[in-house]
Amino acid sequence: MPTFTSHIAPQELARLASREYPSAETPVLQAAAEARAKGYDTICYPLTTDNWKTRWQDMCLLPGEDVKDRNALEQRAEAWRAKPAFLRDEITVTRLDEAEGAVVLISDWLELDASDDWVRHDAETALQQELAYASYLNAHTAVLPPPRNREHAASYARAVNACLHAVPFLELSVRISIYDPSVFRASSTPRGGRTPEPSSAVTVAPAQTPISTWEMWDLIHSTCDYNQRLSLTLDLTLPLPSTLGVLSQWLAEPVRHIFLPASAFIANAKGYPVLPKGTQAFIRDVMKLQPNIILSGTSAGRHGKGGESAYMQYIRHLEKTSPSVQAAQTEGTVEHFAQGYQDYLQAPLQPLMDNLQSATYQTFEQDPIKYRNYEEAIFLALSEWPRPGKILLCVAGAGRGPLVARSLAAIKRSGKDAFVYAVEKNPNAFVTLQDRKRREWGDSVELLYGDMRTLVVPEKVDILVSELLGSFGDNELSPECLDGAMRFLKSDGISIPASYTAHIAPLSSSKLFNESHSAKDQRTSAETPYVVMFNAINILSGDGGGVSGACGPSIQECWEFEHPRRDAVLDERGLPFTNSHNTRSAKLAFHIPHAGVLHGLAGYFEARLYGSVGLSIHPNTMDKVSRDMLSWFPLFFPFRDPLYLPGDSELHVSIWRLTNQRQVWYEWHAEAFLPVPRSTTRPGATPHVTLIKRQSQDGTLLSPRPRSAVALSPLIDAVDMPFIVETALEGGEGSKGVELVKIGQTALHNPHGRSSWIGL
Amino acid sequence: MPTFTSHIAPQELARLASREYPSAETPVLQAAAEARAKGYDTICYPLTTDNWKTRWQDMCLLPGEDVKDRNALEQRAEAWRAKPAFLRDEITVTRLDEAEGAVVLISDWLELDASDDWVRHDAETALQQELAYASYLNAHTAVLPPPRNREHAASYARAVNACLHAVPFLELSVRISIYDPSVFRASSTPRGGRTPEPSSAVTVAPAQTPISTWEMWDLIHSTCDYNQRLSLTLDLTLPLPSTLGVLSQWLAEPVRHIFLPASAFIANAKGYPVLPKGTQAFIRDVMKLQPNIILSGTSAGRHGKGGESAYMQYIRHLEKTSPSVQAAQTEGTVEHFAQGYQDYLQAPLQPLMDNLQSATYQTFEQDPIKYRNYEEAIFLALSEWPRPGKILLCVAGAGRGPLVARSLAAIKRSGKDAFVYAVEKNPNAFVTLQDRKRREWGDSVELLYGDMRTLVVPEKVDILVSELLGSFGDNELSPECLDGAMRFLKSDGISIPASYTAHIAPLSSSKLFNESHSAKDQRTSAETPYVVMFNAINILSGDGGGVSGACGPSIQECWEFEHPRRDAVLDERGLPFTNSHNTRSAKLAFHIPHAGVLHGLAGYFEARLYGSVGLSIHPNTMDKVSRDMLSWFPLFFPFRDPLYLPGDSELHVSIWRLTNQRQVWYEWHAEAFLPVPRSTTRPGATPHVTLIKRQSQDGTLLSPRPRSAVALSPLIDAVDMPFIVETALEGGEGSKGVELVKIGQTALHNPHGRSSWIGL
Q: Which residues of this UniProt protein bind S-adenosyl-L-methionine (chains A, B) (predicted)?
């Protein structure tokens, strides 16, 4: 639910001041009472009056000519600089109850990024003075004047950072519009016709694109070290561009307030106030951040119909039709299930090392989709089973028995003659299994207590059923466990799941960045993946090859595991000598269409259970494969430091699944490149496609695991990229003569000192 | 002094093994004895033999065809992966004394960056095995095989990082040549005709330029978090390009070894071995890092004259003619004075807050140049003094009296009638002053005890002499102190110094980065400037405008202070109301011609004492103005995190001198941009030059301090840059239609929680 704030304009306050108001004691209290009566949660008003503006200008912007009284004026200014203070009629409020829960507007004529050093200096002094007063009155939020001048945005940022350290508690909110009109008009200096500052527009490219104000915000935000008391007040006065890529950046930022004047509304056919399409869409999206909507000028009667309340009603309507809000409010959706867990970092489960609690099993057994799909997969496998006679199943990792029950149901439906072994290593869950066998399953099931990697099973089975998958597929050691279970699967037997793949995408989220850095030891806290229900994030990558034409899609596959696997070399016990066949690595190239800050990687999995039945949390396939499945949130691989990525750049991500005899862990790393026109095309770069063809024919250089070497090795990238680039060179459009210039990189992320986070 | 290491080739070891050697017990010990006899400090040899190479290849690079014995082979490989171990004849040494102080070469056929996943995997296992053995034998340094494949350099880096954590003590040294021939030839895979990996050359621009190997090294170095046990072995087998900008990058890296085969030498007219010009110049430069020179093949008699010893003699000759070495060995130079202080971080003095020790005064009084120039300045001021009659001088901050003595000497030389007041606030130094007055100066000097900012001086003086300058000019609060001293300077009086300016340049230095991050609290340790005698650094900026034509020179001025100043507004005591007139800020654009990593800013000052007499530690002017002056090392402003800068990028640095009533401090910040061709030229960007002209005519918007506003405000940049860019747009060459794309930024650096580092 968004909150609503009524913006009280200076004229309105003046009007109130001029008349009697019985119910309240001051104009602001009167305005607040009226606003609450109209259904607003709180009000928003200017902290200072024109008297303050006049005094500040007289002191700080001296006339150049009449030098005689200059010294007197300058002495007055110095006296103020020495002890900054307000006179009563320079500010609008004096009482705690006037400021309680209110959003106060700092003087918007303060140019913290003015081109003149001394204007900047005195504006900063005034800012500190106004914030100190707002803080004295316990105001909740102070809205800062918008940054106007890219050239001196760093000075604006430095001043705000200083205030965050000087003023306690108060939330500072930078008011900014989604694109920057000031590039083409004069920056509003109070006195004397200062010409605009096109310098930013001229020297810094993004300033002319819709992205520029985001770039200024990001400079301020990161310069203030992502301070949690620094937020955004998005000014939607101007109609929005409908290029959603650009807008989605803001959804990864701390947007706490939306400034929406009546003038931003247009009248619909019936004359009621509505918003332009682009703004509508954005409001729907931003609702998931539950912002505070600051409505302004709603009492001016701009629109024929609906009156003052029409504006709030319309926003409420947009909220109700917001996809994310609808999903969250619909029973049975993962969004509904995840209420309260958005952007909350959880350590992944380690069911192999730890024996799960009964309550944990219960939570996951409630998933309506996962087990339905498992039963369907088992049913299909049984139905298509070629040989006559009894079919032997084994549930490896039976837990409290959900897959056993589903297996029995599937057997019943298939009408086949089958028997089920149930293997479980958790002694506590094993008691539950015994209870269910006695009460439900009887002789159709035999329970076996022990670790599937070492346990002796009386006979080899035809179908091995397991649910060992994590959010990243293999991150709960399904490959290692099934290596052991293969001992009791017949050579022509089948495994359910048959295969699973891990997928990643680069993401931006200042919230997740703060979360993963809030821990005591920032180094280690940013070195392990977390399970997270994403909300305030932005996937930075786009589809479609990028400028070089060499990039993969927005979300890309890292690697795959298949079962039963034929490639592992086994000892006499039927176990692999080492775990090295379960190491994996991937190098993936992502196209970054719009500027953004990289904070981490989103991790997903897809699994094929049997035939066309599967499980997926991959955003592009989850609804098709396993809609409303609740068991897995995505994985979040954090980066220690944010990495700035310009628009149309490329991000090359390396990720490794590593192992020793005791542990499995991931390491990840990224490099950023900017495609620029190539001066000369280079010789001797034969398209690699011929290379890999030759390789896959006589696998001289392929490892003993050709399938994996072809399907999983980074060779794929090494092959595709130059190939595509080369063809592009022969007159492919866009990428013609492009070369990648390296512009940055992240740290290498690995569990420090190998403190395993997944124990074998 | 460099050390020398003799490289023992495998054939040489084989030859030694085949014959009897009385003096030593093993071929390696024999080789070591012979090398020492020839004047080498130690030897360098391969750790493994061909037997190892053969076994590894048989195990890890399986033939694709004959699948039948594949399983046996693969079992052998798995057995090795499970328990990696050498056979005796696979390694060259077994004894501690064989490895003592030696540089061992890891098998150079190991492809840690192979394109095939499994070749990489097994190469890493072999690397760990070889390093574990080298460490077991206490070898000092292990030289790693060169990275060959940009596409998988990240995997190489990850493997090295893992080894640094797995193996204690041992120094790992990455062997790499200054430019990358492998881009155009096949990477040397032992078996099977693997085609080269041009992918890097194709997809990553720098790979074809001389810079590419540095980019690979930097990726490895930074991925290993600048580990102090990771060093460089520069391979100078190939003749060097003479573009020194590219080479100077390496001087900011931990170059511990130089690999120099006899084949790199050419014969001079007389037939003696000498090096090509480019290599000569580089060797001279790199001598300041005191590298270990690994000579190879010197006994082969490649060159007619001089025999085996000629090579070492020639390198010694280059060392003697190395400018940095010569400077360090010449009495009286700052380099000689600074021996042992190179790249050592010192906290700047705070003579205002702390009363200095007599020994500290003594050190600085030994400066032969500084006081000579002061005396000259005073002499000129006296000589040119217009009015007849007694001239009153005041030495503000007399310390132990060096400037008093110089003033008296100057008075004597000038033949003028003058009198000297000496003001000092350090009670201990004041005793020394009394002693000197009694013994040396008599009635020609009157001593005044107290702080020049508050002290009452009997009469106003004509000439005020002070030495309050720091490495950055104003960083020891000279402006604040002289504000107070102005009270007793006549309105037409002279200040010596008359003015001083602060200058910065962006620099790269992994050494200084490690130094400033070694402290306990890394955040604060990287937040204050240090005084440093620079050695292993590289100034990243170049002269000449850059691609946009908008950049200043390599080293740029931040701001200036002038004395006596007319702009401050004074109270009845003659003191400024606030210190705000001493705040400064600068925004400077630097051209970065070659890729590098930004670690901090170098800070310098220039001062004008009187007329043309001055003091300077600015690299471009110090030799002209005050050659061999010893009193000041440069200032180093560190950045918390390294920032990667591509070639031809621009760095926009903001730096502020800030103040409150109690403290003065600096804050600094940088943004990186890459100039790219502009799609469309933008309208409405009027050249700013008109703007500033209008401003300086009627200074409506100028501060009450026009001089400073013009001379110091970032307006200058805001003006110049767009102006130049605009003209460029009207057909200036090079920068035609260039726009700057932001590619990164640093954190904002400030003393945390305002813990002042300069107390007023």
A: 361, 370-371, 424, 451-452
State the catalytic residue, choosing from B476, B527, B560, B562: B476
Number of neighbours of residue A671 by Cβ within 10 angstroms:
25
Concerning whether B467 is annotated as a catalytic residue, the answer is yes
Q: For chain A, what are the domain ranges?
A: 242-329, 358-467, 500-678+746-759
| Nearest residue in A to B184, CA atom | A684
Calculate the alpha carbon distances from B461 to A584, A607, B422, B614 in Å: 80, 89, 11, 22
Do residues A100 and A138 touch, judged by C-beta distance below 8 A? yes
Are the CB atoms for B223 and A747 separated by under 8 Å? yes
**Contacting residues for A49 by C-beta, under 8 A, at least 6 apart:** A10, A89, A90, A91, A92
Residue owning tokens 């304009």: A9
CA distance B407 to B402: 9
Phi then psi dihedrals of residue A396, to 5 deg: -95, 110
**Chain B residues within an 8 Å CB radius of A202:** 682, 685, 721-722, 725-726
pLDDT at A87: 96
Q: Higher model confidence: residue A348 or residue A132?
A: A132
Confidence band for A582, pLDDT divided at 50, 70 and 90 = very high
Q: How far apart are CA A440 and CA A318, in angstroms?
A: 51
Binding residues of A for S-adenosyl-L-methionine: 361, 370-371, 424, 451-452
Measured in angstroms, the CA of B753 and the nearest CA of chain A are apart by 7
* pLDDT at residue number B201: 30
Radius of gyration of chain A (CA): 32
Sequential DSSP letters for A603-619 = EEEEEEEETTEEEE--T
| Angle subtended at Cα B255 by Cα B252 and Cα B261, rounded to the nearest 5 degrees | 135
Cα–Cα distance list, B406 to B63, B165, B377, B433, B441 (Å): 86, 59, 10, 14, 11
DSSP, residue by residue, B510-559: HHHHHHHHHSSSHHHHTSS-EE-B--S-EE--BSS--TTS----SSEEEE
Give the distance from residue A96's alpha carbon to the nearest chain B alpha carbon, in angstroms: 28
Complex ipTM tops 0.90:
no
Tokens 């000129």 label which residue? Answer: B380
Classify residue B604 by burial, with Cβ atoms within 10 Å: 0-12, 13-18, 19+. Answer: buried
pLDDT digits 0-9 by tens, B293-352: 999 999 988 888 888 999 999 999 999 999 999 999 999 999 999 888 999 998 888 888
B78 interaction partners in chain A (CB closer than 8 Å) = 569, 576-578, 580
Of B81, B577, B741, nearest to A79 by CB-CB distance is: B577
Does the structure show a pLDDT above 90 at B697?
no
Right CATH number for A500-678+746-759 from 2.70.160.11, 3.40.640.10, 3.40.190.10, 3.30.1330.30? Answer: 2.70.160.11
Tokens of B755: 């813990």
- Residue pair A323/A282 in contact (Cβ under 8 Å)? The answer is no
Helix (H) or strand (E) holding B349: none
User: What tens digit of pLDDT does each residue of B211-268 get?
Assistant: 478 999 999 999 999 999 999 999 999 888 766 567 888 999 999 999 999 999 999 9
What tokens appear for A648 in the block?
Answer: 């149309």
Q: Do B667 and A722 touch (CB under 8 A)?
A: no
For domain B358-467, the CATH architecture is 3-Layer(aba) Sandwich (3.40)
| Average pLDDT of the segment spanning B202-214 | 48
pLDDT digit string, tens, across residues A91-101: 999 999 999 99
d(Cα B246, Cα B311) in Å, to the nearest integer?
Answer: 26
Q: Choosing from B98, B467, B515, B557, which is the catalytic residue?
A: B467
B468-508 pLDDT tens trace: 999 999 999 999 999 999 999 999 999 999 999 999 999 99
Q: What angle do CA B552, B555, B558 make, to 5 degrees?
A: 80
